[in-house]
Write a structure and sequence with these properties.
about 190 residues; 4-stranded antiparallel β-sheet; alpha+beta; 8 helices
Length: about 190
């Protein structure tokens, strides 16, 4: 879920073109890689080249105590397999939205992308402040990655019930419906 929020924010930056999550998932399955295979030193350049990417972002989430969260990211330049930097953030679990923004702006700085003041203000706004809506989104992403599309749709709908303006949940549900993986509910106003 953290990666999904980060991808959603990065995709909204005008000078960054992100590989769609669906394409990345398809490549991971085709190459029979686990998620960790994307950032392994030997595999990452191959994945990046196949995707036509200049950079790959990987990372880890770490928890100390039950309420603590540490985020360590790594921006890899595909061409020469070098790390451009490792933005990180630490805090309480209930600060997850602030931690995501810290990593986001760290990556943008490393990529040397210039933002207008308006873009900065927009990017600083959290995609949601409803932690339960975020958890439902995470559960939906997990279900979708496991091929349980109906379960994923139910989680996305629950997320939207908790925060009707949570765009990533709307997009994820719309993606499943657009691909014909779940039926479109004519009573739903999620899309």
């Amino acid at each position: 879920g953290f990666a999904f929020l980060l991808m959603t924010d990065l995709a909204s930056v005008e000078n960054i073109r992100l590989v769609e999550r669906v394409k990345l998932q398809a490549l991971v399955e085709e190459l029979d890689l686990g998620a960790s295979g994307l950032v392994e030193k030997d595999t990452a350049p191959r994945v990046g080249k196949l995707l036509g990417a200049s950079y790959l972002v990987g990372g880890d989430l770490q928890g100390g105590k039950a309420s603590e969260l540490g985020v360590q990211s790594d921006l890899l330049q595909v061409k020469d397999q070098s790390s451009l930097g490792k933005p990180s953030a630490e805090g309480q679990l209930d600060q997850v939205f602030d931690l995501e923004k810290q990593v986001l702006f760290g990556l943008i700085d490393l990529l040397k992308v210039k933002l207008t003041p308006e873009q900065k203000v927009r990017l600083k706004q959290p995609l949601t402040t409803n932690y339960r809506a975020f958890i439902s989104l995470c559960q939906g992403l997990e279900a979708s990655d496991r091929g349980n599309y109906n379960g994923a749709a139910a989680h996305y709908q629950q997320s939207l019930a908790l925060d009707p303006q949570f765009q990533p949940a709307k997009n994820a549900l719309g993606e499943l419906q657009g691909l014909g993986l779940v039926p479109v509910d004519p009573r739903s106003h999620a899309i």
